[in-house]
Amino acid sequence: MAISERIVPIIPFEFNEAIDLEGHEAWFVDSLHTLESPDFFLSTYSEANTQGMIWGAEKLPLPASKGSEWRNINFVKILICPIVVTSEAEIRERQARLNENLFSLIQGFEKMWGDYKSELLELYRPYKEFDVGKASSVELVRKLSHLKPVVNRMSEVHFYVMYVAFYFFMLFEDLCQELFGIDATHPDFQAMISGFENKSFECEKNLWLLSQKALELDLGQYFDFPSDQIASSMQGTENGKKWLNSLNEFIEEFGWRNERLWTPAAPSWRDDPKYVIDRVKVYRKVGEESPLVERLKTLTSRREQKIAEYMPKVAEEKKDIFQLLLKGAQYASSYGEEHDLYCEMQTDALMHMYLMALGTRFVEAGACNEVNDIFQLTLDESRVIGMYPEKYRLQSLIAARKEKGKEDAKDVVPNMYSKTMNEQEAFGWMMSAREPIFLKVVVGELPKPKPELKADLIGVGGASGVAEGPARLISSVEELNTVQPGEILVALTTSITWTPLFSLVKGAVLDRGGTLSHAAVVCREYGIPCVLNTFQATAKIKNGQRIRVDGNAGAVYFLD
Amino acid sequence: MGEKHVFWFAEIGKDANLLVGKKCANLGEMTRLHMPVPTGFAISVTAHERFLEETGARQEIGKLLTEAGDLKDYKVSADVSTKIREIVEGKEIPPDLRQLIEWYYEDLCSRRGGEIAVSVRSAGIVSHPGMYETYLNIRGTDQVVQMVKKVWASIFNLRTICAAVQHDLPVAGSPCIGVGVVELVNARCAGVCFTVDPLTGDPARAVIESNWGLGESVVSGQVDVDRYVVDKESLKVITKTLGEKKLQIVPKGHGVAEEESPPERQGAYTLTDEEAAEVVKLGLSLEAHFSAPQDLEWTIDADRAFPHNIFLLQTRGVVGVTVQQKKTPEERLKEELAKRLRRIV
Fold this sequence. Notes:
The complex is a heterodimer.
Chain A: H1 17-20, E1 27-29, H2 42-59, E2 65-73, E3 77-84, H3 88-107, H4 109-129, H5 137-180, H6 187-192, H7 199-216, H8 227-234, H9 238-254, H10 274-286, H11 291-310, H12 319-342, H13 344-365, H14 379-386, H15 395-410, E4 416-417, H16 423-431, H17 436-442, E5 457-458, E6 460-463, E7 466-473, E8 488-491, E9 507-510, H18 518-526, E10 530-532, H19 537-540, E11 546-550, E12 555-558
Parallel strand pairs in A: 7-8, 8-9, 9-10
Antiparallel strand pairs in A: 1-3, 1-4, 2-3, 5-12, 6-10, 7-11, 11-12
Chain B: E1 6-8, H1 17-20, H2 22-32, E2 40-43, H3 45-54, H4 57-67, H5 74-90, H6 95-112, E3 118-123, E4 134-138, H7 141-153, H8 158-166, E5 178-183, E6 187-194, E7 205-212, H9 216-219, E8 226-231, E9 237-241, E10 247-251, E11 256-260, H10 263-266, H11 273-290, E12 294-301, E13 310-317, H12 329-344
Antiparallel strand pairs in B: 1-2, 2-5, 3-4, 3-5, 6-7, 6-12, 7-8, 8-9, 10-11, 12-13
């Protein structure tokens, strides 16, 4: 029997206009997390994200929002619908509960996040230690079934802590607006919350150290080879072995991550050292001076200097609250940068490991031709088939899905779906929920028109500074290698797997993103200008075109 | 005889209310505590009684009152008050009492090496702020003696008579008071200090109100003055509000005058933060001593350098303010956080 006949008519979390538009005011397309190609794992994420956001919004609680529901279209596009609290009495009651929690949340944030990190790593540990190579397919199916709640728990922690941290950020921004008339797009605001060491910084520093170690061991010549040949060529030499040891140590610590975010289909750093070597190559272009450590020092002293400059402007009676919320906003910035390393990157890599192992069993059983074909199935389908893969022949289904996937990826979808509201009404409705992730990451501030700047593109300042250089358009992680030092990154959005790029480029211009989205946080930490929410950068800017990015004004100028 | 009628402040303390009136007793207590109080002396309540009895003033007043019309009539009361004060001020102080007052004043002058200006202040047994009269910038023995009589006469001022009538008390029995003769400080500025926020009852904050010149313009509440809110823990000025300070009271001739402040003074703060902190510090030691929030009158001497330029003229327990439970810095921060939260929800 063909699997296609077994699929239930409503695939969970696939967007169904007939059903999902009833009782849901509006669905917004999350262009920040939209995938490059269909991924049948997306429904698992939509389930986890819905659960995580609703749980997080309830635990805090968010006063005017109960989280968000998630859907996907054809396993490519992601839709989000906020759950808005409309009753004034209920908002007040939730606000009172948040008020009870807020103070101790700021005071205890580091410990709370530390405890959650330990909890998650402990949850992952048995799955990392399990020997997938020796397991039967039914054992793998059992493990996958148990991993699903782990992903859900990861999502709960991810969104709860994010709501907490981003709420601090919003409170601090409001305070700065009142005290100094500056918001999160102001360079001084950004300076006050930048320059902290975190796991992401540590990872990048270790990548740079690997590049330096290669120079010290006189292994420079190997890096002219293609990345996938470097490890095998080095095996023959003493120094090569030494470096490969360091590489393995690095992978042991930082390797639980996939090449792309939010998809178990992407290869993991543990699968092949070439992915790490790609990053090391980027750092070789950067040079001998440690850009990371120096940069951190500069940012740290600039932060201290700006805080010292603004502190006297704060009335004595507001100093305490200023310091408290400043600390909260700093946590938000750091959390925004490092949380992926403990959350979805780890579960992505775990899922990848188990699905690849199960895919191998599928090929052995003749159910499909390639291991990667398993990523053309949803998790539930894989589990059903994995019970006894010998019974299935999925080749035609997989071929059809691959064909359809190519078409689906090209689909242009509107910014939102609603039966009752136009785009403006829907944005207004969504804003009323004061939902931190919508406001600061997924949707972000909409740019204010600034005709006096005579700029070619207007966006929102995500990181301060001004830089000029040739544009480099990047649409996927595979293109990272094309970036040259001094170029300006132009993209729809960025993810944490792109982080090494920021040591190389002089600035970034993004179609989408809020002031706490990945690109904004990382650009601030790398001390380079960034303009977000331009909506049209990738459509209007050509590769190689010289542009000027003004992160202070939120403007982009075309120089030729 | 043999009874003592005049006392240096250093000789009396807070238990001397009945003897010299509350204000004098408090000035005495502050002097004993080595607080910066101007030098001066107190005239006893008995001296006042003796004066009224021995001069026959009491009798004359009694007669006048029996012949007067209905005191509930404002015009009648005003007329009676004027007449009684004429009677009292027209009497000569018994010579022994007069001599004592003269000796003490002259002793004060000789310590300063010349004739000095003083204030002659009323001091009721119970605190009645603003009930009786006080005379500022008085110089010379005769003037001082004359003003003591005027203060004594002020127990029959219109306010007192109206109050007695209202409460159905005999006007003739208006209680006698003590008098304080206090060296006048050459005030740069002056005002009041509450060791609890009188508006909110917050016990963690002290509030200072201040104007140029003598403190009477602040006490009267007629002028929009500078306001300082000071954190009692850190002694830091949390907020300060610049008052308009259109008018100031300054010494002029024999007495004082209310005049318009020069524009440059209107636009400037009267106190430095460090002076404000010092005033509060003094207030806090008095609050601790009396185990109750205090309402002080203070003044800054234009001729002395900080911190020796601060003088206290009066202290009394704060009345009419419900003092809140003391808040910890954490509770305060939580409240502020709640306010911030309300703004963004």
